[in-house]
Write a structure and sequence with these properties.
Layout: E1 2-4, H1 15-38, E2 44-51, E3 62-67, E4 73-78, E5 84-89, E6 93-100, E7 107-108, E8 112-114, E9 120-122, E10 126-127, E11 132-135, E12 138-141, E13 147-149, E14 154-157, H2 169-174, E15 179-182, E16 187-190, E17 196-200, E18 203-204, H3 209-217, E19 224-230, E20 244-250, E21 258-269, E22 273-285, E23 288-311, E24 318-343, E25 347-371, E26 377-403, E27 410-434, E28 439-449, E29 452-468, E30 471-494, E31 497-500, E32 506-525, E33 528-545, E34 550-570, E35 573-584, E36 595-599, E37 602-605, E38 613-624, E39 628-648, E40 651-670, E41 673-676, E42 679-696, E43 699-701, E44 704-718, E45 722-731, E46 734-736, E47 739-741, E48 744-755, E49 760-766, E50 776-781, E51 784-792, E52 797-806
Parallel strand pairs: 1-34, 2-9, 2-10, 17-20, 37-40
Antiparallel strand pairs: 2-5, 3-4, 3-6, 6-7, 6-8, 11-12, 13-14, 14-19, 15-16, 17-18, 19-20, 21-22, 21-52, 22-23, 23-24, 23-51, 24-25, 25-26, 26-27, 27-28, 27-29, 28-30, 29-30, 30-31, 30-32, 32-33, 33-34, 34-35, 35-38, 36-37, 38-39, 39-40, 40-42, 41-42, 42-43, 42-44, 44-45, 45-48, 46-47, 47-50, ...
Domain Outer membrane protein beta-barrel: 402-803
Protein name: TonB-dependent receptor
Subcellular location: Cell outer membrane
Length: 829
C-alpha cells in the first residue's frame, strides 16, 4: 500500500497552538478596539415597524433616517421578516423616517427631535401603499429589474424575466453579467475566473463540475426566484470558491395568514419538444407556516461536436476528425417541502426537504475519421453509445433561530443531511472500417457502469451580537463530513459474457472532514463602515483507490482573512474596498486515479495528488443610487486546478493538474438607462485580463488574454397589460489554461400578457433568435493540436402560462441557508 501524508499547509510544528494564539489575539483586539471606540460616542436607538396596506408585516422593507429640513440621508436599514427595524445614530436634531418596498410608494413618518442625551426613540407604525403610475394607456407598476447591481453582489430576479420563462437555471446563467457557461467542458466561470462555488439556497451542492452543470440543466427556471453573484464573500461564508459564489435561491412559500398558490404549465420547441408543469401551495395558520412545490420537466434536446486533432510530422502526420451527435431526453421531478413554526415572539424553528429525481437517456453517435499526411481517408472508427443516467438528490435541513432582544442579538443553528446517488450506464459498440467502409476487425462491445454515492452531514451555528453604538460582532462555526463512493466497472463482451477489464475498473473511496470557525467585527462611524473577519478551516481528507491499494491521506489548516471598508459620501454615492483569501478544493471525481473512456481515441484520468488552489482577491467598487456600479478587482491564484489535454500517439489523454499561477484583473460596469418611462435599458460589461504563468509537460504555458463579457437587457411596458423583454450577451475570445475559446453570443426576446386582473400571465419567448450560440476553441500546445466546434439546441420557442390563486397579499417567506451548500459543489459523477 502506498500512502501519501504530505500536508498542504506548510507550518512549523506547533502550528495549531500558534493558530489558537493568533485567533485569540485577533478576537481580543477587535473586542477591545470596538469597545473603546464605542465609549467615545453617545448613541440613540430608533425603532419601529412597517406594515403593508392589508396590515401584514412589510418584510425586508427599506427604512431610511432622513434630515427633516432637506430629506438628505442620515442612515439606512432593512426591516426584518416581521417588518421591524432598528437604526442607531450619534446625531441630534430633527428627523423623519422614510420606508419603501418594491411595488409600494415611499412613505414618510412624522417629524421627531432627538436630544443630545437621548437613548431611544420608538416611532409609530408606517403603512405602505401600492405604487401604480398611469402613462396614457400604460399602467406602470414598480417591479424589480431582472439584473440588480448592488454594492456587494449582483442579483438576477429570475421570476421577473420574461425571457427566462420555460427555460433552465443554466439558460439563465448564460445571460448573467460576468458569467461564462461552457456546458461542453462542464465549466462555469465568474468574471473570467474559474473555481466558482455554486450553491442552492445557500447550500453547497458537493457535485463535480460536470454534475453541477447537469443539475442546473435539469433545474427548471420556473422554480428559481433569484440568482446571486457574489465575487468577494465575507468570512461568514465557507472559504471555498476562488472566483466567488453563485447562489441560486429557489422559490419559497408565504408567511402571512391564509392560503395561496400558483400553477404553471408550459411547452416549447426547437429541434425537439419540451414540456413542463408545476404547482406551489402555501398555508399559514397562526404560528405555523407550510409550503410545498412540485415541478415536472420533460426536455428533449441535442448536442453535436466537430473536432480535429493533428499529430505527428512529415509522412507520419495524422489527422483525426471526430464527429459526434448526441440526442438526449431528460425527465426531471423536483419537490420542496417545508414548515416554519414560531415558538413565541423571538424563536422560530423549521424543517426543509428538497428532492430531485432525474432520468436522462441519450444515444451518442461518434465517428472518428483518420487521414494520412496527404489528407487521404485511411480508417473510420465509429462508436454508438447508448447512455442512461439516473440521479437522485435528497437533502434535509432543520434549523432554530432565536432573537435574544429587539436590538439584533440572535443565534441560528442549522443541521443538514444530504445524499446524492448517480447511476449511469454506457453500452458501447465500436466498429472499425477501412476507406472503402469494409470491416477490418471484429466489432467491440463494452459497457461502463460508474455508479457513485455521496453522503453529506453538516452542522453550523451563527451568533450575532450588536454591542451598541454601531458596533456588531458575528461568530460561528461549522463541521461537515462528506463520504464519496465511486465504483467504476468497465467490462468487455467476450464469448457472450461481460468480462471486467482490470485496467479500467476501480473503486475509489473518499472521506473529508472540515472543521471551521469564524469571527466578523463591524463598526459604523458617520459615513464610514468597517468590517474585518477571520475564518479558520481545518481539512482532513483520505482518498483510497481500493483496486490499486493507493491511499492519499492529507490534513491541512488554513486561515482566511477578509476586510471590507465602505464610505458613503452621500445618499447617492458609495465607495467600497475589500480583500479576502479563498480556497478551491479539487472535485472528488478529479482525484480518482483511474481511466474513463470517452471515445476510442480519448480518455479521462484522475489525479490523486491534486492540491487545493488559493486566491488572494482585492476589489474596489463604486455605486451610484444603488443602480450604477463600477468595480476594479485583482486576483492572484496559486496551484491553479486546470484541465489539460495531452496527446499520446493517436490517443488524447484528458486530466487535471495544478499549474503555478494565474493573475486576473477585472473591470466591471453596470448601469440603467431610461430613455422613456416605459423603456429601460440595463447594459453591463466585464473586461478582464488573464495571465497564466506555468509549465506542463516540460514546456512553458504563459498565455495572456484580454477578454470581455457584455450583456444588454431591455424591458418595455406596453399598453393593454403587455410587457416585453429583449436581452443579449457577447463573450469575446477567452483563454483558460491550454484552451483558447472563440467569441460567442446570443439574442433572446419575450412578450408577456397579464390576464384576469393580474392573477395570471401568458409568456412567449424565443432564445438565441439569430442562432449564434456555436462555441469554438483550440489547443495548440506541445504535441497537442486540437480545434473544435460545438452545437446545441440553443434556439427554442417557449409558451408558459401561470395562474396565481388564493390570498395574493401573502408575503414571501424568510429565506434560509443550510450548512452544506459548499460541499455539494464537488461530487464526482
Amino acid at each position: 500500500m502506498q500512502t501519501a501524508t504530505k500536508p498542504l499547509y506548510r507550518m512549523a510544528s506547533g502550528s495549531d497552538f500558534c493558530l489558537l494564539i493568533s485567533l485569540g489575539t485577533f478576537f481580543l483586539m477587535i473586542l477591545l478596539s470596538f469597545a473603546l471606540q464605542a465609549q467615545q460616542l453617545a448613541w440613540v436607538t430608533i425603532s419601529g415597524q412597517v406594515r403593508t396596506a392589508d396590515g401584514s408585516p412589510a418584510s425586508f422593507a427599506t427604512v431610511l433616517l432622513t434630515n427633516a429640513a432637506d430629506s438628505t440621508l442620515v442612515k439606512g436599514a432593512v426591516a426584518d421578516a416581521d417588518g421591524r427595524y432598528v437604526i442607531q445614530t450619534t446625531k441630534s436634531g430633527t428627523f423623519r423616517i422614510a420606508a419603501s418596498q418594491v411595488g409600494s410608494t415611499n412613505v414618510y413618518g412624522p417629524r421627531f427631535t432627538l436630544a443630545p442625551d437621548q437613548l431611544s426613540a420608538e416611532q409609530p407604525t408606517l403603512i405602505l401603499r401600492e405604487a401604480v403610475k398611469t402613462l396614457g394607456e400604460v399602467s406602470v407598476s414598480a417591479k424589480k429589474p431582472f439584473i440588480e447591481q448592488l454594492p456587494d453582489k449582483t442579483v438576477l430576479n429570475v421570476e421577473n424575466s420574461i425571457v427566462a420563462a420555460g427555460g433552465t437555471a443554466l439558460d439563465v446563467l448564460e445571460r448573467a453579467p460576468g458569467v461564462l457557461v461552457d456546458s461542453q467542458n462542464d465549466r462555469i466561470t465568474l468574471k473570467g475566473r474559474d473555481g466558482t462555488l455554486v450553491m442552492i439556497d445557500g447550500k453547497p451542492t458537493y457535485l463535480s463540475a460536470q454534475e453541477v452543470v447537469n443539475l442546473l440543466r435539469n433545474t427548471p427556471s420556473n422554480t428559481v426566484e433569484t440568482i446571486e453573484l457574489i465575487s468577494n464573500p465575507s468570512a461568514k461564508y465557507d472559504a471555498a470558491g476562488n472566483a466567488g459564489i453563485i447562489n441560486i435561491r429557489l422559490k419559497r412559500g408565504s408567511r402571512a395568514g391564509g392560503t395561496n398558490g400558483s400553477a404553471t404549465v408550459g411547452g416549447g420547441y426547437g429541434r425537439f419538444p419540451k414540456a413542463s408543469a408545476g404547482l406551489t401551495l402555501n398555508h399559514r395558520a397562526g404560528p405555523l407556516s407550510l409550503f410545498s412545490n412540485y415541478n415536472y420537466d420533460h426536455r428533449e434536446s441535442y448536442g453535436s461536436v466537430d473536432a480535429r486533432r493533428i499529430f505527428g510530422a512529415g509522412d507520419s502526420l495524422t489527422t483525426v476528425r471526430n464527429l459526434g451527435y448526441r440526442p438526449n431526453t431528460a425527465r426531471n421531478h423536483t419537490i420542496k417541502l417545508g414548515a416554519d413554526y414560531s415558538i413565541g415572539k423571538r424563536t422560530t424553528a423549521g424543517l426543509l426537504v428538497n428532492g430531485l429525481l432525474s432520468d436522462n437517456d441519450a444515444r451518442i453517435d461518434n465517428s472518428n475519421l483518420i487521414y494520412n499526411a496527404r489528407n487521404e481517408l485511411q480508417q473510420t472508427v465509429t462508436m454508438v453509445n447508448t447512455s442512461t443516467r439516473a440521479m437522485q438528490r435528497l437533502s434535509a435541513n432543520a434549523y432554530l433561530k432565536h432573537s435574544f432582544d429587539t436590538l439584533g442579538r440572535e443565534l441560528t443553528v442549522d443541521i443538514d443531511a444530504s445524499r446524492v446517488t448517480i447511476r449511469p450506464q454506457d453500452d458501447m459498440v465500436t466498429r472499425y472500417a477501412n476507406a472503402a467502409n469494409e470491416e477490418i476487425k471484429p466489432a467491440l462491445t463494452q459497457r461502463n457502469l460508474p455508479p457513485s454515492t455521496v453522503t453529506i452531514r453538516a452542522a453550523k451555528a451563527d451568533y450575532v451580537h450588536p454591542l451598541g453604538k454601531g458596533v456588531r460582532l458575528e461568530a460561528g462555526g461549522k463541521l461537515s463530513y462528506v463520504t464519496s463512493d465511486n465504483d467504476l466497472r468497465f467490462e468487455t463482451l467476450t464469448n457472450g459474457t461481460y468480462v471486467p477489464d482490470p485496467q479500467r475498473t476501480n473503486q475509489f473511496l473518499y472521506d473529508e472532514t472540515i472543521a471551521a470557525g469564524y469571527v466578523n467585527g463591524s463598526r459604523e462611524a458617520g459615513k464610514w463602515q468597517l468590517q474585518a473577519g477571520l475564518r479558520a478551516e481545518h481539512t482532513r481528507s483520505v482518498g483510497n483507490s481500493v483496486t490499486t491499494s493507493r491511499v492519499v491521506d492529507r490534513q491541512y489548516l488554513d486561515l482566511f482573512p477578509s476586510v471590507f471598508v465602505t464610505y458613503s459620501a452621500s445618499p447617492d454615492h458609495q465607495w467600497r474596498a475589500s480583500y479576502s483569501r479563498r480556497i478551491d478544493r479539487p472535485n472528488y471525481q478529479d482525484l480518482n486515479p483511474f481511466i474513463y473512456v470517452m471515445d476510442p481515441y480519448t480518455y479521462r484520468e484522475g489525479n490523486p495528488f491534486l492540491h487545493p488552489q488559493y486566491t488572494n482577491a482585492l476589489q474596489l467598487g463604486y455605486t451610484y443610487k444603488n443602480e450604477t456600479s463600477v468595480s476594479l478587482s485583482y486576483n492572484h491564484t496559486t496551484d491553479v486546478i486546470t484541465g489539460v489535454n495531452d496527446q499520446m500517439g493517436q490517443v488524447l489523454r484528458v486530466t487535471t493538474v495544478n499549474l503555478a499561477a494565474l493573475d486576473n484583473v477585472n473591470l466591471s460596469v453596470g448601469m440603467p438607462i431610461k430613455p422613456t418611462r416605459w423603456w429601460t435599458i440595463r447594459p453591463s460589461a466585464d473586461v478582464f485580463w488573464n495571465a497564466y504563468n506555468a509549465a506542463f509537460g516540460g514546456q512553458r504555458l504563459d498565455y495572456r488574454q484580454l477578454s470581455a463579457n457584455v450583456t444588454l437587457n431591455q424591458s418595455f411596458v406596453l399598453p393593454h397589460g403587455l410587457t416585453a423583454e429583449l436581452s443579449g450577451f457577447y463573450n469575446s475570445p477567452l483563454v483558460y489554461g491550454q484552451l483558447h475559446f472563440g467569441g460567442l453570443g446570443q439574442l433572446s426576446a419575450g412578450l408577456q400578457k397579464s390576464l384576469w386582473r393580474k392573477t395570471a400571465s401568458l409568456r412567449v419567448n424565443v432564445s438565441d433568435l439569430l442562432y449564434t450560440m456555436r462555441p469554438v476553441g483550440r489547443i495548440n500546445y506541445g504535441a497537442t493540436n486540437l480545434t473544435f466546434t460545438n452545437r446545441g439546441e440553443s434556439r427554442v420557442a417557449r409558451l408558459t402560462f401561470t395562474w396565481n390563486f388564493g390570498n395574493q397579499t401573502l408575503k414571501t417567506a424568510r429565506q434560509r441557508r443550510s450548512g452544506v451548500e459548499d460541499e455539494q459543489g464537488r461530487i464526482g459523477g
